[in-house]
Amino acid sequence: MIGAMTRDQLERETRRLIDEGERLIDAPTMPDLRAWIQRSDDLLIAAWGQMDRYHLAWLMVGRPKDLVRGRPMTAAEERAYVREVAEQKTAALRMSLKAVTDGMPFLGAEVDAATRSDPADLVDGQDEDGGAAVGDLGR
Question: What is the domain extent for residue 84?
Fold first, then answer.
């Protein structure tokens, strides 16, 4: 499991996983998909928390449209499956990257002392720009 990280680390790791996803779309293999899914899941859980089945079903990540059941996939079907799952997960990673670059607070954030808001600077739970204080999110 990935521990606390800075915003720059999260952005860098997310970009790296997006690049890996794009390579996987170009050269799909099931073993590479499994390893990449595990690394991306670990990063997303560290940043945003565990997703429940409802959210995963809503995102449709890992649920190809033409799922083969009751028999092994052919090589062509496996490549198509890997591409489709990689496309979906890469899209989810891009959404995560946008949230990071937009400044959304994340669970594994390592707060930099230079950028931490001083509680004295907050008025009614907001910073001087009117944004919610990180500790007030979810209330």
Answer: 7-108
77: left (phi over 0), alpha (psi -120 to 50) or beta: alpha
Strand partners, 132: 126
**pTM (2 d.p.):** 0.70
Residues 6 or more apart whose Cβ sits within 8 Å of residue 102: none
- Structural domain includes residue 45: yes
Q: Looking at the 3D structure of the chain, how many domains does it have?
A: 1
CA nearest neighbour of 3 among 46, 51, 39, 40: 46
**Helix axis angle, 30-48 relative to 75-101, nearest 10°?**
20
Count of C-beta atoms within a 10 Å radius of residue 106:
18
Residue 136, in any domain of the structure:
no
Q: How confident is the model at residue 24 (pLDDT cuts 50, 70, 90)?
A: very high
Q: Assess if residue 1 is contained within a domain.
A: no
Residue 21's Cβ-count burial label (10 Å; 0-12, 13-18, 19+) is buried
pLDDT digits (tens, 9 = 90+) for 84-110: 999 999 999 999 999 999 999 988 776
